[in-house]
Amino acid sequence: MTTDASPDGTTAHADDGLEGEAARVWGVLTDLYDAFLAGDRARLEAHLDEGCTMWDSTIPLLRTKADLRAGRGGGDNDPAYPSPVGLEASDPVVGLLADDAAWETHVLTARFTDPALDEVLRCTSVLRRDGGGTWRVVHHHEELLTGPGRPAPSRRLAGA
After folding, report:
1. Class of the CATH-defined domain 3-146
2. How high is the pLDDT of residue 2?
């Protein structure tokens, strides 16, 4: 599924081919990104388990949902670094570990008003389904692949 920000700041989703619980798991992430772009902090945080841990190579101080709430991550508090105006989540892979556990990976492209700031990140999340059937992120990892000061990676595995 792709989450594209239109010029008016809304988002649209393309068909990703996922079905059933895999589609519901992926829907958590795409709605989380929609909430971020809409500035809906409550909706964004509702997708995160209270004990959610985070690892973001672009915001090293952000480790927990409590850090996010306290603004210790940087990001929103750094006027020198703007928020993205568009997010494109693509190439989802979802795995169901059990009836109440899942993982997902995807590529996230963050677009800024200044294209020189655009970033491509590799993301991985682990989710749990609560007793009411709601999937929540218990861990989210974002690794910067390309962006300001970081060119496209060029290493390859031996034999690849």
Report:
1. alpha beta
2. 38
Tens digits of residue pLDDT in 8-39? 443 434 457 899 999 999 999 999 999 999 99
Q: Is 92 exposed, middle or buried (0-12, 13-18, 19+ CB in 10 A)?
A: buried
Residue 79 exposed, middle or buried by CB count within 10 Å (0-12, 13-18, 19+): exposed
pTM score, whole prediction: 0.80
Domain boundaries in the chain?
Answer: 3-146
CA distance between the termini of the chain: 28
9 vs 109: CA distance, rounded Å: 15
**E strand map for the chain:** 3-5, 11-13, 48-56, 86-98, 101-111, 119-129, 135-146
Check residue 13 and give its pLDDT. 44
